[in-house]
Amino acid sequence: MQRTPTLMRRNMLQAATALALCGASIVTTAHAHDFRAGQLVIDHPYATPSLTGTPNGAAYFRSIRNRGTAPDRLVSASTAVAERVELHEMTTEGNIMRMREVPAIDLPAGQEVQLRHGQRYHLMLINLRQPLKVGDRFDLTLKFEKAGETTVKAWVQQPRAGSSQSTHADHKH
Ligand SMILES: [Cu+2]
Description:
This protein is of the alpha+beta class. The chain has one helix spanning 3-29, and strands at 34-37, 40-47, 57-66, 72-78, 82-93, 96-101, 105-107, 112-115, 121-128, 137-144, 148-156. The chain folds into two domains: 1-31; 34-159, PCu(A)C copper chaperone (Immunoglobulin-like, Sandwich). It has one helix and eleven strands; from the N terminus they run H-E-E-E-E-E-E-E-E-E-E-E. The N and C termini lie far apart (78 Å). Residues 58, 88, 99, 122, 124, 168, 171 line the site of copper (II) ion.
């Protein structure tokens, strides 16, 4: 009978260790999240908080990585939080920054395309149905030419200090 308490104690220790490990992995994934669609790795979809009085918002990714041997393209996106989503390219002409809608964002084979705030491309959320606040999460459905459709979770967060000061929320369409 003397063995029982020892055994119980060991089991409790194992349970505690398992809990600790489990907790650790939850903490790690809370800082970044990624999704797969075929050969594509969609890393950390996020959106900036919307500005009061502006109808539009913008969504970004840390990157989309194409691990395959064939090129793919992001051809459209949609979300319940906005009337529609446009794929935008930012260009600088002289000192003027311009945005234009593009039919697709190329994802070359074996390459990682950066789609962060202040970089070449972003997703424009046209006519938001609700304001986007820091900490919110929303579903964003992406359609790729080859990898098909996939729904990812976008996190609303303040862009890191030092990134481009331009907000795309106020440009006209
Ligand atoms: Cu835009």
